[in-house]
Every structure is written in C-alpha cells, then in structure tokens.
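Ticket #4471: structure output looks truncated?

Reporter: J.K.
Steps to reproduce: submitted the chain below (210 residues) through the standard prediction queue, then opened the result file.
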Amino acid sequence: MTELVIFDCDGVLVNSEPIAVRIDVAMLAELGLTMTEEEVIERFVGRSPEVIVQAVEAELGHPPPDGWFERAEDRLRRALASELMPVDGIVEALQQITQPACVASSSGPENLRLKLELTGLYDRFAGHIFSATEVTNGKPAPDLFLHAARQMGVEPAGCVVVEDSRYGVQAARAAGMDVLGYAGGLTPADVLAGPRTIVFEDMRSLPELL
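Returned output as attached by the reporter:
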C-alpha cells in the first residue's frame, strides 16, 4: 500500500525542463562550450545546479567567470515567469490523489518555491517540500528521497516516487522505493525503465497507478 507519494518537481509537476535546457545551452555557449540540448538532457536533467558548475569547471580547467551562474539563474527565473505551466494533466491527477504527498527536488529552495507558486501548486505541498540542498548528496544518490520519507514519517518501502529523469529514477531505486517513471517529458521511456518501475506517459493515469 502506498503510504506516501514523493513527487519530483521539474518535469513532473511543472514543465520547466525544456526552458532550463534551452538556457543551459545558451549559457554554456557564452563560455565557448558547445553542447546540444540532447547532451544537456543526458548529463544534467534531474541533477543539482552545482553539477553543471562542476562540469563547466572541469571543461574550462578553471571556475566560470564571476557572476556567470547568477546571470544564468536570473535568466532562468525571468523565463519561468513568462513561460512556466503545470505539466499537462497533473492538476487533474492531484485532485484525485488521496495519499499523503510531498515534493523532493534537485532545485534550490527559492527556485522550487517560485516554480510551484507560478503554477498554483505551492499551497498543495506547503510544509512538505524538500530540496537537495538539505542533504549531502544529490540524485542519483538516495539521500533526498530518504530525507523526505524521514521528514514525513514513512518507511522507504511505503513510498512511491514520481520521477521523469534518469538520475531521479536511479535515486528512488537506490532508496528502496517503487517508481512511477513519467515518460511524457524529455527522457525516453526506455531510459526510465528498470526494476521496481512502472513507466507511463499520461499524468491523468497517475491516480490509477497509485
């Protein structure tokens, strides 16, 4: 029986990932680093922003210029304010889900709150929102999902994670949790498929799957 539903945010609750990928490609190009959207999806979607900064430092051989990351974050926030929407079908799904639920995301707390407020979802999860900044290791490590379960008072075996990224489903499996892998976004179904995982493409089917 599902005692707790743990939702990722980006790509599961809000359609932020195409926006973020587009901006990542542009900001990397500013540094002379050519990376396609497909490469950004493969390497970074589902992971903490610090992972991109570390990758940039490794590619350049030195840290990015002062203010580069802050400019990227500002550009992202402005784009989110004008373009962000809930993932198709998630509002209808949330209206039917009766189990306790929380959010566990690689986004920082400020951006996480912004995304949920812009899409009208913040009040649904207020007080039950957890960021990777609260744990030592981000996805694909299990730390964030285990932290969320502890805070919600539920054992890992009673949790189901709704994820849409390679690193997110890996983290959920490592935490000993069942996974519902949403393949209606940027990550193909075959990448999400694996042990303890049901892959689905329509958020409206989520209440049935739970």
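Triage note (M.O.): checked the attachment and the full token line is present. The domain at 4-15+84-209 is CATH 3.40.50.1000 (Rossmann fold).
Status: closed, working as intended.
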